[in-house]
Structure formats: C-alpha cells, structure tokens
Amino acid sequence: MKVHLLGAHNRARYGDLLEANYKLRHRIFVDLQGWEAIRRPDGRDVDAFDGPDATHILVTDGDELVGGSRFNCHDGPTLLQAVFPGLVTEPLPAPPALGADWTRFYVRPDRREGRRRAPESAALFCAMMEYALSRGYAFITFVSTIYMVELGVSMGMRIVPLGAPANIDGKPTLAAWIEVSETALANIRRATGMSQMLLPVIDLDTRAPHIAVAGLY
C-alpha cells in the first residue's frame, strides 16, 4: 500500500486519483450507506469542502484506490460548522487556526469484509495523526457514530465530545475532537502495527497553503 497526501501544492499531479476518490466516495456514502442528500447524477461525491484549500489523504494498492479521508482547516469553512452546528455546544479546545475538520473517511468495502481491522483503516488513522503533527495542529474535529469514537479511544487517542449525541440517519452521532500529540501517534502505531512513517517526507516539508470505517462524515 502507498499513502498519498494531496493539497494545493501538488493537486495538479493527482487529477485521475482525485476523480477516482470522488467516484468511490459516491458509491460508498450514497449507493451503499444511503446518503441521498448528496446524490449527484454524475456519480461523484463533491461538495463545497473539496475546494483548492482541502487536503486529501488517499491510500492505493498498486493502481487501485482503496481508502481515503479529507481535511479542512478551521480557520476556513468546514463541514462541521456548515452542516452539523447543532451537534456543537462546547468550545473548541484551541483557536480555530490550530485545528482541522476530518471528514469522508472510507475504506473500499471489499477491503473490509471478513477483517476485524483493515490495514487500510490503520494506515489512514496513522496518516491522519502524522499530517496533523506536521501542520502544527493541536486538535482534529470529526462527526461520526459513537462506534468510531469508541474505536479511536481503544487505539489510545484522547477524544472529547463537543456536545451530546443526536440521532442522524437512525444512528447515534456526535461531534468530537481528537488531541494531536506524539503520544497519540505512538499509541495508534502500537495498536495498528503501523510502525513506519507513512506520509511522504517531501510533502510534509512543503509548507503550501492548507485551509484542513465508514461513519465519519
């Protein structure tokens, strides 16, 4: 497997991979999970938070896209602020510029079947924390089912709810924040067995502008 970091500094080189990401997201979140509100006739899950300031972490196996997620910095528009403000009743733990919103986490369904914890999911969790540390973030927010919160805590992350759960699409769902720290990364690596650094160093060293299974919005 290979992990790719796509941002404003290198997006032009990854046009085909980004398109594959939009189409796979549509298949997973709309066709399989039934998020009819985001259905599009072109079969692409693209919204206002996929703009030039978004950062995508995508996982490939050979030529095949097998997983991904997205980040938007809180000093710009985020899905949490625009779509789920009712889930937030507590303040963010630090100034908005020190955090990002983590959304559209997915692993291709056939890569999850029959496995307790897919290595693609493990890679995405590790890469999430590596990316957050590289950008100097103090926290990452997300909206998800309670199951995902429990999974994150079981991997050694400090996760704090931003409000009480609400029933969304028939599932108890809440907004929360994850503390970004070297300790959290070490805990995730220990829990997942991903001991090596996953994100390409050349991308982590590029200080380009950046404004940031299933069940993470």
TrEMBL record:
SUPFAM superfamilies: Acyl-CoA N-acyltransferases (Nat) (SSF55729). The keyword Transferase applies. One of its GO terms (biological process) is signal transduction. It catalyses: a fatty acyl-[ACP] + S-adenosyl-L-methionine = an N-acyl-L-homoserine lactone + S-methyl-5'-thioadenosine + holo-[ACP] + H(+). Keywords: Autoinducer synthesis, Quorum sensing, S-adenosyl-L-methionine, Transferase. The keyword Transferase applies. InterPro entries: Acyl_CoA_acyltransferase (IPR016181), Autoind_synthase (IPR001690). It is an enzyme of class 2 (transferase). Its EC number is 2.3.1.184. It comes from the Bacteria. GO terms for molecular function: N-acyl homoserine lactone synthase activity. PANTHER family: ACYL-HOMOSERINE-LACTONE SYNTHASE, ISOVALERYL-HOMOSERINE LACTONE SYNTHASE. Belongs to the autoinducer synthase family. This is Acyl-homoserine-lactone synthase. It comes from Devosia geojensis.
